[in-house]
Specification:
Layout (H helix, E strand, L loop, with lengths): L3 E10 L3 E11 L4 E5 L6 H9 L6 E5 L7 E4 L11 H11 L4 H14 L15 H13 L5 E5 L7 H18 L2 E6 L2 H7 L2 E5 L6 E6 L14 H19 L1
Parallel strand pairs: 3-7, 3-8, 5-6, 6-7
Antiparallel strand pairs: 1-2, 1-4, 8-9
Length: 246
């Protein structure tokens, strides 16, 4: 049984030609897969297909289609600027028709899980970039989705904040075990985050290589300095360079 899948997907845009494909991906329940590739290769397009935000030109999409079963975190936090962090996180529950008091309790628990229990009343403008992304992550997880889609969520953050959020995502994944697709152009980030890394060619994106990272999740202390991590980063980088040269 797969959590989600793209089967021989092709996406064409009028006036722009082929943007993605043919490309296939099968995601197992609880698996973390990273898509890595150059800008414009179709990584975010693949994510939008899995989110149900876009339809393929050809091919089939299998996804968790129930309300609240799929959640997306974009590169920008996309929080409502007029609402508190608590109300932002409670929004998916409100849209599901959950009682307001229950929704607020669950939203508070989600904020606490990402270290923002004291910031429940803050507006997005009062949050740092890392705090805003944590709030977006809490909002994505508040419905306990089966599929979590992360579209370069660390791109605008500094290195220390990026590493802290990566550890947070692994910790929260261990609690709920959603399947995760993590989109990035950063090879080290992909190897750290995922048990499987798919390297894509320049657009229209196709599969260049697939790497299995044989290490436990969440990552053990010091994983970034381990021989396995460096080996997988070099192998992934080599596959990406080969894709770019083709």
């Amino acid at each position: 049984m797969t959590a989600a899948a793209l089967q021989a997907i092709e996406v064409d845009y009028p006036g722009r030609g082929r943007a993605l494909g043919p490309f296939s991906l099968a995601l197992q329940p609880g698996e973390i897969v990273a898509l890595v590739g150059p800008s414009g290769c179709g990584k975010s397009t693949a994510l939008r297909l899995l989110a149900g935000l876009e339809a393929p030109t050809r091919g089939q999409v299998q996804r968790a289609a129930g309300r609240g079963e799929t959640a997306v975190v974009f590169q920008a936090p996309t929080l409502m600027p007029w609402a508190s962090a608590l109300d932002n996180v409670a929004l998916p529950l409100a849209l599901e028709g959950v009682d307001r008091a229950q929704a607020r309790r669950r939203a508070q628990a989600a904020l606490s899980s990402v270290g923002l229990s004291a910031a429940h009343g803050a507006k997005p403008a009062q949050l740092s970039g890392g705090m805003a992304m944590r709030a977006a992550l809490a909002r994505a997880l508040v419905t306990a989705p089966k599929l979590l889609l992360l579209d370069e969520p660390f791109a605008a953050l500094d290195e220390i904040t990026r590493r802290g959020l990566a550890a947070d995502i692994h910790r929260l994944w261990a609690q709920q075990k959603p399947a995760i697709v993590f989109v990035t152009h950063n090879v080290e980030e992909a190897v750290y985050m995922a048990s499987r890394v798919l390297v894509m060619t320049p657009g229209p994106g196709r599969l260049q290589a697939e790497m299995t990272v044989d290490a436990t999740l969440p990552r053990p202390e010091g994983f970034r300095t381990s021989a396995l991590f460096r080996e997988m980063v070099e192998r992934t980088s080599a596959a990406l360079a080969q894709a770019m040269a083709a």
